[in-house]
Model the fold of this input.
Amino acid sequence: MRLAASILAADFGRLGEEIRKVEEVVDFLHLDVMDGHFVPNLTFGPPVANALRKHTRLPLEIHLMIDQPARYGPQFHVTPEDVITFHVEVAHPEEVLRTLRQLPCRVGLSLRPRTPLGALEPFLDRIDLVLVMSVEPGFGGQTFLPQAAERVRMLRAMIGDRPVAIAVDGGIGPGNVRAVVEAGAEIIVAGSAIFEKPDPRAAALELWKAAGHTKSS
Ligand code: DX5
Ligand code: ZN
Done:
């Protein structure tokens, strides 16, 4: 298992400080980029992500919940350790993938809770990660949709031995993290379960413990 901390639930006025609290106990920073069109919420874009890139050694997982990932994706300053993830529901995902594949980073595909898993099939040979949404994208702090665990199991079978990692995003906390990992998720994204707790570092460690794993295992 690897743990990604979503900064959506962090204090945006003190992002550097918030990140330092969890830097030793998570594997990725998960950045939720929203455009107010693809999802009914607005967050931040390349300027904020690029500023953070310089202030952390953690790889970034850039989750693009935007209508035009091909237009804005190339504006993120990425390294080979980073992942840029876009949604399969956008217009012309083939073209988007071709564009993002030219960036010096890994590329992931995400899908909304009700999008059939079959939508991923044409892309599985050309992506590095699938980000399974376990809430409707748009907001942190929502309740985990339990059917996500079964979707992870089915996706695992679809992927077979291809080198595609499965990440799960939304509503994950100590009460359900183990079930998600046991279903086959390798990367766990957590926002409010980390940053809305008084001690984000301790909260991240609690997630590791609840999952039955230790960092870098
Ligand atoms: C939702 C975002 C998630 C969110 C997770 O659209 O993609 O990454 O930050 O937050 P929690 O863990 O609070 O559900
Ligand atoms: Zn996300």
About this structure: The radius of gyration is 16 Å.
